What does this fold into?
Amino acid sequence: MPVETKELKMSEGLLSFITEWKKKPGNLIMILHRVQGEFGYIPKGIAEELGKMLDVPLAKIYGVITFYHFFKLEKPGKHTISVCMGTACYLKGGQDLVGELEQLLGVGCGGTTDDGQFTLEAVRCIGCCGLAPVLTVGQEVFGKLTTDKLPEIIAKFK
Ligand code: FES
It folds into this structure.
């Protein structure tokens, strides 16, 4: 039976993954990856449920989540705008892109818009340095950007 939390429940697939990994070393990180794959972040209720299932203190689970920046504690927006802050992009104005997006979206870096449409984040080099400065929205890459192109990109995903 799926485990229900306040509003979210673990799928059968996730539950069997947890059962399979329960006793294996390094299981917590593997399971957290799987949870984030399923929900897009680590919901609090699911973290609590995991603690009970694995007999691990909640503080330890949150210790792991916060140590690895990969894990998210907040539900991401429908679209994640990831601005590259690798060296090439930084030197070509990546910071200006972040500043302008913060203005346009009304959220800080790492934040999600109130309507749940966009999450803004800064990321390391994504391997398209020849197109610097770049950002991605989901799987789509936008390169050789200037701040004046940003409203158009946002509009495309609204
Ligand atoms: S530094 Fe931005 S893609 Fe490499």
In short: Residues 12-67 form one domain.
